[in-house]
TrEMBL record:
It holds the Pfam family THUMP. NCBIfam families: Trm14_Thcoccales. GO terms for biological process: tRNA methylation. It comes from Thermococcus indicus. The keyword Transferase applies. SUPFAM superfamilies: S-adenosyl-L-methionine-dependent methyltransferases (SSF53335), THUMP domain-like (SSF143437). It is found in: Cytoplasm. This is Class I SAM-dependent RNA methyltransferase. Residues 69-182 form the THUMP domain. PANTHER family: THUMP DOMAIN-CONTAINING (PTHR14911), TRNA (GUANINE(6)-N2)-METHYLTRANSFERASE THUMP3 (PTHR14911:SF13). GO terms for cellular component: cytoplasm.
Length: 365
């Protein structure tokens, strides 16, 4: 089976490592590839059949897609691949021609092997790049081709609101992909614990990528701008047994973070402190790890305040941080100045796609 896995752009390597780690636990042959056909934010996993023995000693097939949906912290979707194809030149083609190519391709695919004809289905599509067609055009065209194919075997049903089966069609640049979306309409990064919605919350998948980059080893850990608590909550959910602190300046967000932690079942594991990160050493004497998405000044506060805020924060951080810090922000110049002026060394930099922007991510020591 071939699974197309989606995640945020810029963390494919970390998601690949997570998937390899999860699949190793199943004892099945597998191969995982980052950015198949050059598509960012995508991972391809080829996995052999996984069997388990039930309580009556019978061999049963384990659903690898369910296993990944339930266990992964970095993935957004788990899609069973039906087919992938590169459509050379589709970006410049007039809509009629581009859609005809997609329709002809899909109508030849044995979609009947993946669904029961009687199950109501819907097609959800995703399009990225320069094209003369829209994602709605793709949904309609693919839906029509699947319907006509399934009509050969019975009476297919479409249900756009409550489908039993979701086909996912993607056109990213010239690469077209069709699969069965086993995740459903809500992406895995939308965690069920989120009862308080911070206006600038971090995707949980990216929070986990930052935690991976920090490599916390059980020592004290802080998110000094914790907002709704995404990073400390995700760390606690990973079973971290060291001290976890979340600091936040605004009471409203701190209460929201506590509500989220309660809903995640980890409130007891996190010390939430109402306070100002530019006075960090007043709240913690020493931490080994600090991981945060800093205020960008786009959604929160005034942008002109950012250089001063970052400079005061990193000065304080230099008094308490023992091992490693991981920070994410759009404000490249301000953060690099604040980090280097306060004696931190940038060990790693990468760009991660978040909220439609490519955001700078730093590992410092
Ligand atoms: N990671 C968080 C989440 O997922 O909800 C969002 C963090 S948001 C980008 C930055 C947070 O920093 C905001 O909640 C803001 O109120 C807080 N903040 C701004 N200035 C602060 C300061 N001086 N000290 C502590 N927190 C501050």
């Amino acid at each position: 089976m071939r699974l197309l896995l989606t995640t945020s752009q810029g963390i494919e390597d970390l998601a690949k490592a997570e998937v390899e780690n999860l699949l190793s636990g199943l004892g099945v042959p597998f191969r995982v590839e980052e950015k198949p056909l050059g598509v960012e934010g995508r991972i391809l996993a080829e996995v052999g059949e996984a069997l388990y023995t039930d309580e009556k000693g019978r061999k049963r097939e384990l659903s690898v897609s369910t296993y990944l949906n339930e266990r992964s912290r970095l993935l957004h979707r788990v899609i069973v691949e039906i087919a992938s194809e590169r459509f050379e030149g589709i970006g410049e083609e007039e809509p009629d021609l581009a859609l005809r190519r997609i329709e002809e391709f899909v109508s030849e695919l044995p979609v009947e092997r993946y669904v029961k004809v009687s199950e109501p289905f819907a097609v959800r599509s995703f399009r990225k790049g320069e094209h003369k067609i829209t994602s709605l055009d793709i949904s309609k065209t693919v839906g029509k081709a699947i319907f006509e194919r399934l009509e050969r075997f019975g009476k297919p049903k479409v249900n756009l609101d409550h489908p039993a089966v979701i086909f996912r069609a993607e056109l990213v640049g010239e690469v077209f992909f069709l699969g069965i979306d086993t995740t459903g309409d809500s992406s895995l990064h939308k965690r069920p614990w989120r009862v308080y919605d911070h206006p600038a919350h971090l995707k949980a998948s990216i929070a986990n990528a930052l935690i991976e980059l920090a490599k916390p080893d059980g020592g004290p850990f802080i998110d000094p701008f914790c907002g709704s608590g995404t990073i400390p909550i995700e760390l606690a959910l990973r079973g971290y047994d060291g001290r976890i602190v979340g600091l936040e300046k605004y009471r409203k967000h701190l209460i929201g973070a506590k509500m989220n932690a309660l809903s995640a079942g980890v409130l007891e594991r996190i010390e939430f402190i109402l306070g100002d990160a530019t006075k960090l050493s007043e709240y913690v004497e020493r931490v080994d790890f600090a991981v945060s998405n800093l205020p960008y000044g786009l959604k929160i506060g005034r942008k002109s305040m950012i250089p001063g805020l970052y400079s005061a924060f990193f000065q304080e951080l230099s008094k308490v941080l023992e091992k490693r810090g991981v920070f994410i922000t759009t404000e490249k110049r301000a953060i690099e100045k604040a980090m280097t002026e306060n004696g931190f060394e940038i060990k790693h930099h990468r760009l991660i796609g978040h909220g439609g922007l490519m955001v700078h991510t730093y590992v410092i020591e």
